[in-house]
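Minutes, project check-in

Agenda point 3 was the complex the collaborators sent over. CS summarized: two entities, 548 residues total, and the question is how they sit relative to each other. Sequences were read into the notes so everyone works from the same version.
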Amino acid sequence: MIKAIHFLPDEKNHEATRLLPYVMAVMVYLSALALMGSMMLHKGFGEWTDSLSNRLTVQITTADSVARDAQLTAVIGLLRKTPGIEHVRALNEVEIKKLLEPWLGVGNVTDDLPVPDILDVTVSRNLTVNLDALRSMLAKVSENIHLDDHQQWLGRFLRLMDMVEYTALGILLLVVLATVCIVIFGTKAGMAENRETIAIMHHLGAQDGMIAGAYQSRFMKYGLKGGIIGLILAFITLVSLIYLSRDLASGLIKMPELPIVQVSVLLVIPFCAAMISMLTARITVMRDLARMV
Amino acid sequence: MIHFENVGMRYGMGSEVLKDISFTLKPGSLHFLTGPSGAGKTSLLKLMYLAHRPSRGKIEMFHEDMVKVPRRDLPKFRRRIGVVFQDFRLLDHLTAVENVALPLWIAGGKGVEIEEHVEELLTWVGLEGRMKSRPPTLSGGEKQRVAIARAVIKRPDLLLADEPTGNVDPAIAKRIMHLFVELNKLGTTTVIATHDMGLIKKVKADRMHLSDGRLQFIRAGEQGPEEELNSASFEPHNLDQKEFGPRNYKGEGQR
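CS then shared the predicted structure for the full assembly.
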């Protein structure tokens, strides 16, 4: 029984469009990687900056250990009296050595190595500490006392984070643009291959929309097929990268993890690819047909 | 039904292939279109099946000015026209049934009704054993019959045929001509481009003769230009209308 007549020749015979699903797969692969990378870094950076945003570090670099101990006691007293400071803790020798180990190597931190005293200070999130006043008070105790609020580093870090995200967004936009161009070329090539079929359909009274419909459903299929392949490949790549990076991180910094909930949003990518491909094909066909008699 | 007034036609920037063509075809009329090769017969047919716009003049069809009709409205007029192309123009990847069913499907028809209708017509043109065959596997004559079936399946208001009996044996040619005559009697305005002088003599219809892009009307029975008479090689067929006819074919395609 005749339900629908597929008036366009089978896609197997389409030299021009046969490879399109694979090109779409590459495009979706690249955009999914860009998006997933961006999401992971966003989450990772967020955690790092969060953990530093209410912390201060005070270093006492006085060489003489007796004077240094006296200064340490004075600084702890001073800090505890300062409004807005919640907690002050001096790092013990083992903790300080552990901090140095990634830089100097395990076992290379000898006992005679002059290491500073370090205070880890937690600041209240509700109250603001007057850092300038605190700095000048600490300077009165000794000029070898350094207060680091991490702001300079955090500022650079946030700029880097923004740049990475904008780059990812830029890559995504470029990939979408390239996809649109490829679909336009593919559609035009497909139309050129079927010029005679299109002419016959016109003579028999087919509307442009009917012809465009055949192309748009074909290109939607290409987009969806390529999108699914590309997304699966991107997931495999990312999971492999995370697995490999676990060995490299060696505890120096906490490696970002895959934010599962956010990443699941990426499942819509194949559908977006299908939509972009379908709409581009429709617009291209309708515009080309409008130039015919 | 069809009115041409001082129509000229050219391809691109080339010179005019049709010059000052003026004629009127009454509804339900039957005309032959003759002329030497390159005289512009196919170009004139193209104007009539709305595949080309004239470079000048006025064309009125179905009570509408076809020069002014917007492009989006052309399909609805094309659906009222059946065309038999000289080179058949079938879709090679579709079966004979699907090719013939296309005009009905385009017009929104579906299902068993279409298929029965199409199979009946294909049987009538002698292709009952080739329903599921694709054009590349059909002979020239078989392709021509599929093309004719596709042109008449919707019982068009206007039927245009370019050398419709060129590739078929005399018996089938007779049957096809009879189909055209029957459709014409039912009200289909018919124009048949042909070189077959025997056919012209037998059917006794008026003749539109094109020569060098200009049109001349020749009444049925009158003698036309000599070159055609000289080139005529015709074995007369006896068109017995009782013997051939779309007995079961009702020709009530959807519009």
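Noted in discussion: The longest helix of chain B spans residues 170-185.
Follow-up: revisit at the next meeting once the mutant set is ready.
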